[in-house]
Amino acid sequence: MRVLMLVAAVVLSAPGCSNVAVYVEHDPSANFGELARFGWFDKPSMAASSGPDGEILEARVRAVVRDELTARGLVEEAHGTPDFLVGFSAAVDNQLQAMTIDRYYGYTQSTYLTRAGTARDYPRETMGRQTVVQEYQQGTLVLDFSTPDPRRLIWRGYARSVIDPNSTQEQRDKRLREAVRKMLRDFPPR
Questions:
Q1: I need a labelling partner for 74 at 20 to 30 A (CA). Which of 4, 41, 134, 140 fits?
Q2: Of 182, 183, 180, which Cα lies nearest the Cα of 64?
Q3: Mean pLDDT of successive 10-residue stretches along the chain, which has 190 residues
């Protein structure tokens, strides 16, 4: 029983790890060497929340993306025509994780003796298996870079991470910064 509880604790804590999964793709025909100034799409897609929370998240994402792009020598173009537009969407989805654990890790005693002394087989379904189910929230951030006219997607980055409901504002900001930094690590593509 102690082993089962230990395995269950490990399984239940696995989604809380601080990993940010990132995937990036780009248009190989785009000339990223000509990109020097960026602007913003009018309104992001904020499936995570609406109202004041969405506005707070939008401001945080814009600030982090702006910091990362300017650190790479790009300039934010507020009034003129930028070389590319930045758009993003954010969403929070409820996820389920289910894992069936065999207490005996593959080794089972499959027979037993009856009172009469004859051997009988245990049904395999009852050999100490238990299913552990955990619900958690997963956040997704998608960054899009497009040409301004005509609008054509030239770069896209995805970042996904489990959301810890007990995290502080500082921890959430750190996770957001980590996600954007990982997405833009090799930007501009060569």
A1: 140
A2: 180
A3: 31 52 95 94 60 75 95 92 93 84 57 60 60 85 93 95 89 93 92
